[in-house]
Amino acid sequence: MDSSQATTMYPWKEIIPRMEEIRAEATDQFIAAWKNAQSRRTHDFTWHETMGYVIVKRDDAARRIVLSPRGPELLKEMGLVFDPGSVSTHPQDPGAADWDIAAAGPAAEAAETRWHPAHARFALRLGEPPYLRAFSLEHLALQTTQCLRERRRILKSRLDPDEMLLSISQFPLLGTGTYIDHQGAPNGPLLRSQLLPDICLNSQPPFTLEIGGIVDRRGVVPYTGVPVFRDTNTVWPFVDEDLPADPYKGGILTQSCESNRDSACVMGSSTVATATPSAAAAPADLSANGLPSNAPWDALLNSQPPPPSRPLLLEPPSNKNCVLLDSPLFGIGSGGVLRVTLCAADLDEARSLHDQLAPISAIMAALTAATPIVKGHLVNRDCYWDVQCSTVDDRSAQERGIVPLTTAKGTLLKSRYGSIDMYLGPDETRADPAFRRVYNDCHFTYDKQSFWKMKEDHGIDSLLALHVSRLFVRDIHYASENMLSTGDTSSAMSGQEHFKRFLGCSRQNICLYPPNKCTSSGWEVEFMSLEAQLTDAENAAFITFIVLLSRVIISYRLNLYLPISLMDQNMARSQKVNAAGEQLFFFRRDVFGGRDGKSNGSGRISKRANLTPSRNTRPTSASAERGTRGMNCSGVYAKAEYVELSVDEILNGSEAFGVTGILNIIFTYLNTMRLEYDVEQALRRQLLLVKRRASGKLCTLATWMRNFVRTHPEYQNDSVVSQSINYDMLRAMNDIEEGRVAAPELLG
User: Fold this and answer.
1) How buried is 557 (Cβ within 10 angstroms: 0-12 exposed, 13-18 middle, 19+ buried)?
2) 582 CB-contact burial (10 Å; exposed 0-12 / middle 13-18 / buried 19+)
3) CA angle, 369 as apex, 608 and 195 as ends, to 5°?
4) What is the pTM of this model?
5) Which of 382, 392, 399, 441 is nearest to 417 (CA)?
6) Given Cys at both, which of 81, 160, 179, 662 links 173, Cβ 3.0 to 4.6 Å?
7) How many CB atoms neighbour CB 44 within 10 A?
8) d(CA 20, CA 18)
9) How buried is residue 100: exposed, middle or buried, by Cβ count under 10 Å (0-12/13-18/19+)?
């Protein structure tokens, strides 16, 4: 794009005086989208995926692999014209296509893929397909893998001979030693990092301004500590000497005193502070206004702020036994991604998908775990979720409860990236006995002004208004000239730029997006907790699983609700080492119950001491294998609403605990579809990978990487991943992806 026509961008510090004005405009844009959707036709279900990759450069003579900062260069060669001020692109509705998408084939579709830059120069977002994918089991089975392969082939064709393209969540050596080509010195003006030089960062304004906004808003560069895996020769206590530890700069992953689990961003709080409206307490006549009258909603909407003198931080975080990170770039736009976006028929379906997929997110995080190495060390976790949440944590000292509230809207218990704060439930005009308000048992802060405007002035129901008003207690990190214009130019773009800025700054494990005015798409739900897998076949398998699960949720009206507090515990457990094989997760025992408002509503939780005595007993009856409700369960488990289950038991079922198994239900669904033989077999092969990984017959990528390092002849059992070990590992991973080396323990 001609620089003379480029949109002017303004950083966070310069838009602070206009922030309330931007919030008000964003609120109006959501209200307009909601109203417009009320009169629109019901959409057919569509979906699309988002993939991301990392470019690396190898030096065979030196046995070294480093990152290649050629991402922007490659996209320019491919004809990308990037407007920093534009709202992110979105696939078109399939009805807008002027060519037959299904008949075009994977190669034609891949050629039309929307390519996007990322925050890091060494990362690429392979964006979305040109059009939303219509729900076709044939396309899902036979073309998804091929589309991913074609995209990768197109990008590989642009690489230099010594470069490789990997779908990995994080480069293992990022931040230590020599890890990027033309590395240069750290402490640059853009990243302000002691570990990362500015060459790592894409120099386009949206990316520099977002990174700078996180640092400026927090007041200091956010530190994140990742617990080191203790091997036999690991120096203990381990101290990362690269950075000084300051507890009030922290995002250190410490253990919560109460739950004895790793907790990011809350910084070791053993109690949950009372959440409040962002301004004065809400009016006393809430019930008369139609708001929920049951706890905890009265407490949520009427509670006063906690004493500002009491900080959330009870134990200062320590840098002992942790690898320290000091830049938001460690967590945003610096690695591969895998996301699945589901375009629902209407808002009711979107709310159902949002709520029912949320309890599955922890299970899928454990099953796709792929990040056991951070900054050149084996770490004591397999997933990157909490690390990402902590590195982009822009909460000020007031919002973290360290100093008294004076100018902040309230105390915020989570980073802007994290698990969902609340379920959406049904619209207040539609009853759903499966949803109970007590499931929303965690507190959060919301923007009072936008909430009451949506509810009282425009009739948006309380739960949806609360969900949206949560976004407005946080600031956006930058704004375009169009957003600050007093004319109509901001509305001319998409009518949603202000609101989408707030959405883009707050990412949760499940995200809800309003209908897109420009592309005619409907309400969307994005599944965010998957980690990118090594091969296209693996990525396609998990895409297929999420898409089919969404159809099963709607078709069979599954009830996967569990309290938000239990879901948060599941998210923490999912990131532990070998969580897919060793951890237990709270899950609803009967996913068909509770819809009548009577069954399965005890709220009782059955806990298990450990995993070993209760390994999955596979169902043997035909009815159980088909996923019907024919399982027998006696004793305490029959009365429990939630049971602690392994990933195997949740997905493959357990007769001992009366659990049908999500995969068994999906297979039942496929049996009703009267599929062609080749389509059915292809779908079952994809789901078999998920099934075998859940059962432990196949390992996660994190386990494969950890085992590779620990069995490498040069490994000293000291948790350190050297350049040569990293070289051998990434070469082996590339060979596996290209099919030159078999990995039966990973792929079967």
Assistant:
1) middle
2) middle
3) 125
4) 0.86
5) 392
6) 179
7) 14
8) 6
9) exposed
Rounded CA-CA distance 394/502 in Å is 14
Mean pLDDT computed over every residue of the chain: 80
Q: What is the pLDDT of residues 54-101, one digit of tens each?
A: 999 999 999 999 999 999 999 888 877 666 655 455 555 555 554 455
CA distance 517 to 129: 18
Single-letter amino acid, residue 412: L
Count Cβ neighbours within 10 Å for each residue of 59-90 and write b for 16 or more, e otherwise: eeeeebbbbbbbbbebbeeeeeebebbbbeeb
Give me 106's structure tokens. 């994977």
d(CA 527, CA 542): 11
What secondary structure does DSSP assign to 369-416, as a single string?
----EETTEEBS-S--HHHHHHHT----TTTTTSS--SSSS----S-S
Residue 316: Cβ within 10 Å count? 14
H-state helical runs in 290-378? 297-302, 347-367
Peptide bond into 296 cis (omega under 30): yes
Residue 451: Cβ within 10 Å count: 25
Which residue intervals of 626-676 are DSSP H helices? Answer: 636-639, 647-652, 662-671
The span from the CA of 160 to the CA of 74, in Å, is: 10
Instruction: Show the tokens assigned to 512.
Output: 């809800």
Q: Which of 513, 528, 523, 522 is nearest to 87 (CA)?
A: 513
Q: Quick one: tokens of 386?
A: 């909490």
Which residue, among 570, 551, 541, 540, has the nearest Cα to 360 in the 3D structure? Answer: 570
What residue has token string 């195997």? 648
- Which element (helix H / strand E) includes 556? helix 536-556
Cβ(623)–Cβ(632) below 8 Å:
no
CA–centroid distance for 348 within its chain = 22
Distance (Å, whole) CA 314 – CA 237: 22
In the block, residue with structure tokens 């059992």: 717
Q: Is the peptide bond before 237 cis (omega within 30 degrees of 0)?
A: yes
Residue 570's pLDDT is what?
96
DSSP states of 239-301? B-TTS---GGG----EE-TTT-SEESSS-S-SSPPPP-BSSSPPPS-TTTTT---STTHHHHH
Look at residue 667 and tell me whether its pLDDT is greater than 80.
yes
CB count in 10 Å sphere of residue 245: 18
State how far the Cα of 491 lies from the Cα of 495, in Å rounded to an integer.
Answer: 4
Burial of 604 (0-12, 13-18, 19+ CB in 10 A): middle
Contact between residue 379 and residue 399 where contact means Cβ atoms under 8 Å apart: no
**What number is the average pLDDT over the span 178-183?**
93
CA-closest candidate to residue 471, choices 434, 421, 509, 428? 421
Q: Which residue has the higher pLDDT, 430 or 95?
A: 430
Q: Is the pLDDT of residue 1 over 80?
A: no
Which of 110-119, 310-319, 372-381, 670-679 is least confident?
310-319
